[in-house]
């Protein structure tokens, strides 16, 4: 079951990495507060996804 475990681990790592900030053309007047809020939101979403991935991973190991 080594392949499945490594796949799940890499998946968890990928989910944990922050998404790149997309540069919006046109609207250049972005507030600092907005950027911070957006970053916090990403971190919350990443955290949820990572926790879900880790739970699935644990379940897969125990299922052996």
What is the assembly state of the chains in this entry? single chain
Shape field: elongated
Helix content: over 70%
Mean pLDDT: 71
Radius of gyration, whole Å: 17 Å
Number of contiguous helices: 2
Number of strands: 0
State the low-pLDDT regions, or none. none
Give the terminus-to-terminus CA distance: 8 Å
Q: Major beta sheet, specifics?
A: none
Provide an overview of this structure:
With 64 residues, the protein is mainly alpha-helical. The protein has a domain at 1-6 and 30-64. It has two helices and no strands. It has helices spanning 2-16, 32-62. α1 runs antiparallel to α2. The radius of gyration is 17 Å and the shape is elongated. The termini are close together.
Top keywords for this entry?
64 residues, mainly alpha, 72% helix, elongated
What is this structure, in a nutshell?
The chain is mainly alpha-helical. It has 2 helices and no strands. The radius of gyration is 17 Å and the shape is elongated.
Task: Describe the secondary structure blueprint for this structure.
Elements: H1 2-16, H2 32-62
Helix pairs in contact: 1-2
């Amino acid at each position: 079951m080594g392949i499945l475990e490594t796949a799940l681990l890499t998946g968890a790592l990928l989910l944990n990495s922050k998404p790149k900030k997309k540069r919006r053309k046109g609207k250049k007047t972005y507030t600092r507060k907005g950027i911070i809020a957006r970053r916090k939101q990403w971190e919350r979403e990443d955290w949820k996804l990572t926790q879900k991935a880790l739970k699935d991973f644990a379940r897969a190991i125990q299922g052996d």
